[in-house]
Amino acid sequence: MFINWNMTRKITAIKRQKRNPHRVNIYLDGEFAFGLSRIIAGWLDVGHGLDDEKIISLQAEDEQEVAYQRVLKFISHRIRTEGEIRRNLIKHKIQSEVINDVLQRLRRNGLVNDKQFAKTWVENRNEFRPRAHRMLTYELRQKGITDEIISQTLDSITSDEVLALKAAQNQARKYNGLEWPNFRRKLSGYLARRGFSYNIISLVVVQVWAENRSQEKSMEQLTKR
What we know:
Blueprint (H helix, E strand, L loop, with lengths): L8 E8 L6 E6 L2 E7 L11 E2 L1 H23 L7 H10 L4 H13 L5 H15 L4 H10 L4 H9 L4 H13 L7 H13 L5 H27 L1
């Protein structure tokens, strides 16, 4: 709400809001005028005068502070990307200028870093659930990471061939005892769902099958001794 007064008005009361103790109501010349975050209203005192320009400035600061506090709550559960934060604020009808200011403040305070997010995301995937570059690209785009950052991040990690082999070796333990047709079908499907190409899957499945068969034969020989 913007006030169209053409003269300075005097603050006659500053009252804490009943439903939100982090906000106060400002009264000018005995009448309610607007609400503010306590942090924005911290320097105001009863008896101070406010003109139109200062009122508009206070309300703009308040809008940014409300958006910033909303983001702090949003990122309290896990790290978020700039894209996720922007989408969340747009959903709450925050103006684009305010969103840009909030993101700049978050960067300055070290609370958002898309490069670090992408690096951590890829490292975790590669460690626990390896998948192809194209699948990682899709996931990071869904998080709002730019193609430039995605490219820089993926250039620094291992090839799809190595990732596919690691994923296959981990998963193949579940298929011990299967005959070749079922083994190939199940492991191929698993790797395909993680975005690996047909050519890579074909080579990796054969390699892992051979490794497993070799280990099984070694175990059999040890058992017979």
